[in-house]
Amino acid sequence: MVKKKKLAMFTVVLAFTLTSFAEKVEIDSTLSDACAPIAWRGETPWKIPLSTNLIHLQLDGVIAEVFSNSVTLKVAEAAVRSAQRELSIQRSAYWPSLSFGMSWGETYTGRGHRQEDDAYSASLNGTWLIFDGFQRELNVLKSSHERNAQQFAEKEARRGLHQIISTVWFATVLAQDRMDASQQDIFFNHRMLDTEVQKYSAGVGRRSDILNFKVKLMEDVNTYFSQRLLFDSNITILEKLLQTNNVLSVDTHRFVDPYPDELAFLDIDLEEQLEYAWKTRTDIRQQKERLDIAKLDVNITRGTRLPTVTFNANYSVGHANTPDFRVPEAAAGSIGVALTWPLFSGFSSHHQIIRSKIQRVISELELEQSQMDLREELTRLFKNFNHSLQLYHNAVLRREAALEDRELVTLLYQNNLVRVTRLNEVQKDSVHSTEQFIKSRVGVGEAWEAILIATGRMRNTAFSHETQNSTTNEPSLFYIHDLAPAPLHQPSEKEQP
Fold first, then answer.
1. What one-character DSSP code corresponds to residue 93?
2. Where in 210-261 does DSSP place strands (E)?
């Protein structure tokens, strides 16, 4: 009985040894295959230098390119030109109108016999509107405000495109940085897995530790490809905005964060920014123009009750049997002044005036609502920015501590002073702290960009370094820009394989 038990135990140990050896061979043969799909930048998938072979895209340049190709902006610009022509049409009402006419006719008897005398005539008519109840002046002012409103609508379309591009851009940068962080985690777990395989081959390692780092490595690979999918989705949107196809790629392009690690912002006052936005934001100014148009419509409707005075002049010549108009007796002319005054129209003008007043009240209420919405929007964005900035500062400290803790525990683990569970804990803290760091760093830049867009500032114009001596008298907003983003933690030379 004892011999049978020993034989059974020997059989189990032998089977476990053979299984472990087969697993080791499998791990050795698949280690390179596990990371091969992500070696897209250099020979090592974990190395993320800002290579000179990559095209570094700037947000300013992409916005300028989108503006030059946008069909939406071309339509808006065409609407501005149309409004300018309408203004010219209204101004032409101040000029007199001239018309020239000629006629020829034959006379027939009742039985269809042609008479000998033919009729020839020519005339020149002139009309000049002298007074029309101020309709022309008011219509010119209305067309001018409509032209201005179209100009602000075109600028608002630019602001809307800027907001869309900014949102997609920061989402792309976030996915890009997360891919970089995933590559670093892949390198760490790949290195630890290789170490455990060597220890296991020497007979001092544990198979469970190999499986642990293999699972961690595959998790990092999955994280990388999930962020790669988000990255590709975002650049597809950018390509649509740029009117291009299959131009942007993670292999050839690097999206530069407009705001580097060390962010420097001046303190800005909410009330000052509200005042500035109320005066300069294009959608607000467009609504103000619409309100002015509604006020003019009331006066234009009232003007229909006033009389119109027109000066008329006519000169005509006519003759029978011959078109020779040199005979003085054939010429005739007339001049006159006509006055027309609508005295009663069934209360139509009264109702039109009331309708115009109602439209004016609606415009005033919409503008008042826009003012409240603007205050709510900027207040929310200011709170979001302050909160994001606090998260960023905390994330920097947390990440520094987590990376240092991981390096210390890694050394202890390599010297068999701590178990793998402790290393897993610090690695998890490192991953979470890096994720929080990336998210908060991109988030604070996106929050600041949202404030600039909400106040009506556009890139390539008011986004450069602004000073208090600016002739526009706008509040100063400063940020560090046009710098390469600070890379995430790079493996030291000792860590490089």
1. G
2. 253-255
Distance CA 468, CA 474 (A): 8
Two tokens at 55?
Answer: 């095209």
Q: How many CA atoms lie within 13 A of 302 on its CB side?
A: 10
Cβ atoms 184, 488 nearer than 8 A: yes
Does residue 256 sit in helix, strand or coil?
A: coil
407: Cβ contacts below 8 Å, ≥ 6 apart: none
Q: Is residue 237 a contact partner of residue 169, using CB atoms and an 8 Å limit?
A: no
Predicted local confidence at residue 199, as pLDDT: 85
The CATH number of the domain covering residues in 39-93+148-306+348-454 = 1.20.1600.10
> Which residues is 340 bridged to in the sheet?
308
Domain 96-131+308-341 CATH (choose: 1.10.1740.10, 3.40.50.150, 3.30.1450.10, 2.20.200.10) = 2.20.200.10
Q: Are 427 and 188 spatial neighbours (Cβ–Cβ below 8 Å)?
A: yes
Cα 88 vs. chain centroid, distance in angstroms? 34
Looking at the chain, the domain(s) classified CATH 2.20.200.10 span 96-131+308-341
Number of helices (H), then strands (E), belonging to the chain: the values are: 9, 6
Q: Is 469 exposed, middle or buried (0-12, 13-18, 19+ CB in 10 A)?
A: exposed
Mean pLDDT for each consecutive 10-residue tract of the chain (497 residues)?
Answer: 54 48 45 38 36 77 89 94 94 92 71 60 90 91 95 94 94 93 90 88 86 90 92 92 82 81 64 91 94 93 90 82 55 87 86 93 94 94 91 91 92 88 90 92 90 82 33 33 34 39
- State the pTM of this model: 0.73
Tell me where in the chain the CATH 1.20.1600.10 domain(s) lie: 39-93+148-306+348-454
